[in-house]
Amino acid sequence: xxxxxxxxxFLGAGxxxxxxxxxxxxxxxxWNPYVILxxxxxxxxxxQQFREQLNSKNIKPLSGSCICxxxxxxxxxxxxxxxxxxxxxxxxxxxxxSDACALMEFLGVGLNDRFxxxxxxxxxxxxxxxxxxxxxxxxxxxxQVSSIIVLTHLKRIDLRRQNEVIKALKNLNPTAxxxxxxxxxxxxxxxxxxxxxxAQKFEHxxxxxxxxxxxxxxxxxxxxxxxxCNALPKSILRVKACTKISEQKNHTYFExxxxxxxxxxxxxxxxxxxSKLLTIGPGSKPFILKxxxxxxxxxxxxxxxx
Length: 306
Prior knowledge:
By secondary structure, this protein is α/β, with parallel strands linked by helices. The chain has helices at 15-28, 43-47, 72-80, 100-107, 136-141, 159-172, 222-231, 286-298; strands at 3-9, 32-39, 59-63, 88-93, 119-125, 148-152, 177-180, 211-215, 238-244, 251-256, 262-266, 276-280. The protein is globular and about 55 Å long.
């Protein structure tokens, strides 16, 4: 029977980093992973990050819905249509606002009998754990029915903070195994059982935030990236974008995480939907994104046309 592993965690916690690690590890062990990516806006952009690890037939983007509520049926149908494979394993990355408890409650209903009951891995950003203000309840919800909790953002974190976070995690989910990615033995995952931990009630509508995307022109330099990100309201929790810089041949991907950190890296290939600026969180409105682009370009001495 084929195992299903769902990856959950707050925006920017490191879910995609974990997913890449799992794909690479399973590939090396002779497994045949199939991946489903869920995002409110343009999951197709994220799909292209895995082109070197996966055949395009083994990855499915799900955009514009929340797989723990209105997108559950689409997710279940996508899983049931996954082709049978030797040593198959299914990996699902949920969007960063998912109600992880509701996801596990509904996902296992109606799956083909060739699949094992889904298990869940939570990704926890140790540096920012429970520093999300009004979003702390959602972050806590995302670890309560997980079989494994993976700790991320451990650099420059002292032992006292790590122990403090681990203690809090154990209080919320006393049965989960907790460790960093480096200590994760992927061969144990297909044999894990779903968590029997009882979750606290959570008002899921609290996790339904605004999201949107707009076209993004070529940028003159990396400075424009920082100007655009800094011009966007802090209420926007997640910023992702892909475009070209100056006359460079290849595209560049950048993101602003909930803590405000801005990361820039090369993009693998050409974005299917064209160059885009995507945001998630209060304040995600097209005119706000366009104004931020205008400010970024003007401050980089670049002409902009609406």
